[in-house]
Amino acid sequence: MSWTRREFTKLGALSLAASVAPPLSAQPAERKIGYAIIGLGRIAAIFMPGTRATTNSKVTALVSGHRPKALRIAADYDVPESSIYNYENFDSIISNKAVDAVYVALPNSMHAEYTIRAAKAGKHVLCEKPMATSVAECESMIAACKSAGVKLMIAYRCQYEPTNLKAVSLIRSGAIGQVQAIESGFGFNIKPGEWRLDKKMSGGGPLVDVGIYALNASRYLTGEEPESFHAFTSVIDHDGRFKQVEENVSWTTKFPSGIVAACNTTYGGQMTGFFKVHGSKGWIDVNPAFNYDGLHLRAQYPGTKLDLPNTSRNPYQFQAEAQHFSNCILHNLEPKTPGEEGLRDMRCISEIYRAAGASA
Amino acid sequence: MSWTRREFTKLGALSLAASVAPPLSAQPAERKIGYAIIGLGRIAAIFMPGTRATTNSKVTALVSGHRPKALRIAADYDVPESSIYNYENFDSIISNKAVDAVYVALPNSMHAEYTIRAAKAGKHVLCEKPMATSVAECESMIAACKSAGVKLMIAYRCQYEPTNLKAVSLIRSGAIGQVQAIESGFGFNIKPGEWRLDKKMSGGGPLVDVGIYALNASRYLTGEEPESFHAFTSVIDHDGRFKQVEENVSWTTKFPSGIVAACNTTYGGQMTGFFKVHGSKGWIDVNPAFNYDGLHLRAQYPGTKLDLPNTSRNPYQFQAEAQHFSNCILHNLEPKTPGEEGLRDMRCISEIYRAAGASA
């Protein structure tokens, strides 16, 4: 059997619908989960249009230190002025009935604080990756959400995205046989002055920011937890950008089954996110794998050659993750990527830095 | 500037000619270097037709334990019966004036012995990769050839191949800026019973056999010698194939400049040889990179997007390496990939096995 482009587009739509849409019988009565968006930067600017494409999510509040910007966005999303918060009065969100959940889109160092404050205000939390800047922070976020009885999901958009899900399902179906080895990488050449280069705000360099996609992929592709890591970090460009964080990280992982993964990440080079999976009977090559759209899967295994461009357009991945989390809230389900998933990556990141002899 | 497919084909032909052809003025009088082919297996069966496409090389003797096979090939290449040797009478080749050089295409464990015996017989040596099964063997081969005053070249065909050379020249020209990170891999799912699975004959698993392409590429692409390695080996398939050698190796390398490389090799999975190079201004992706033909280079850097399939057909890489070595013999030049190049890879292989905690 082989997939045509058309069949795949259909499949993409179907699998997206199946993974994120509520049961048909529940649709008529389904209310929309209201989100407070914390941090109005680049990623929030994609998430918000994403919610518009869902059937069960909407933006109902904004949290920002920049009121004019918040007012502009509020007008666009019909958010009342009374639902615009700043970082000082944020905790009063507890009394805002229109807010069921928050979307934490702040610099990494603020994830823990705002997740915990949101939980204390009784709001469910969808938090961007990386979950936080340390294992201890991740653990306290999980504990706070548990104790407040709210749900916590980490926004691993690729785990809700049909091309990545297709790769996972091909592997699980046995199509490419026993997986032996994986390569993956993701990086870019960072501009000076970004908050990501400030270790206090970011918690680390490209590894925590984009390398985490390769790390997370190696885990969801194998379905295993890494047994151990070896790693190098390096700085090549002594141009002032890398005084606090590394420029490159190269690591190799061994999984309990014996599967190995070799990965790179960089803040100094052009590296479209990709992964290659090598099985005993065939292979899967996804490139781009982690972009917001334009993903492309190629695979070959007995009797089949796949060439599947994903024609969905940004922000479909954000739509999918919002739809999923809102559905979990509406139907009291556990998110596919809960806080524990973010914690597992943070533990791996810690191990990689430790292996490289750098501090996490 | 951007290359069309046609321009590239022309370039391929030109650069091939430039790198391997003798000066025009010398052409009329150029004689053909006579090769004794030692070991009549799969790789010799490609090298021999390769020599036919050169202007300066020919097969003039055969060394084999299988006389009927040798007689068939001798008829095909006009080799007189008196120039067919076996492994016992091989040393008498010293008196065969039609033999200038040998091509060593034996199992790895026999490379050192036949290189040294050939050198003692006064013949130049073109030896297949991996050069040998240990650093000590490589050193003794270099010493033997030096002492006999004969040339020694390791048959790193990719270093004479236009697509790989194009990648190197793009990097050296600065087109993609400062190289930061490289991924590379090469492997296949090996059949039971191959001599490559017998450690005494092979000296190691996929690392010495095909992983060496990724290792060698990381060295010629960067133009640097690895500073250190981290590595894992693993065996997943306990089906009797991997009692002596590893099934998978995953390693990461750091070069003195800070460039990092993450590489895999396998005897258990389908892994078309490839490399990706990430620079500050652009990238190069060659896939396939190490096959006998069908190589394909894609690259992107300011103002340029390259998509360059190499339309040359096997055995053009063997033609190129034979033409180069014969030219070195005819004009007393040092081969581009001398014994020292094989020794450097062998030292790296040793380091990778040591890093993985396995014996080399």
Structural overview:
Two copies of one chain form a homodimer. Chain A is 34% helix and 24% strand. The first copy, chain A, has 360 residues and is an alpha/beta fold. Chain A folds into two domains: 125 residues, 3-Layer(aba) Sandwich (Rossmann fold), CATH 3.40.50.720; 154 residues, Dihydrodipicolinate Reductase, domain 2 (2-Layer Sandwich), CATH 3.30.360.10. In chain A, the strands form two sheets. Chain A has an eight-stranded mixed β-sheet with strand order 8-9-10-7-11-12-13-14. In chain A, strands 3-2-1-4-5-6 form a six-stranded parallel β-sheet, with helices on both faces. In chain A, α3 links the parallel β2 and β3. The longest helix of chain A has 17 residues. Chain A is globular, with a radius of gyration of 20 Å. The N terminus of chain A is likely disordered. Chains A and B meet through β7, β8, β9, β10 and β11 of A and β7, β8, β9, β10 and β11 of B.
Instruction: Write down the overall mean pLDDT of chain A.
Output: 93
| N→C terminal distance of chain A | 47 Å
Q: What level of helicity do the residues of chain A show?
A: 25-40%
Largest sheet of chain A: 8 strands, mixed
Features:
homodimer, Dihydrodipicolinate Reductase, domain 2, Rossmann fold, globular, 360 residues, alpha/beta
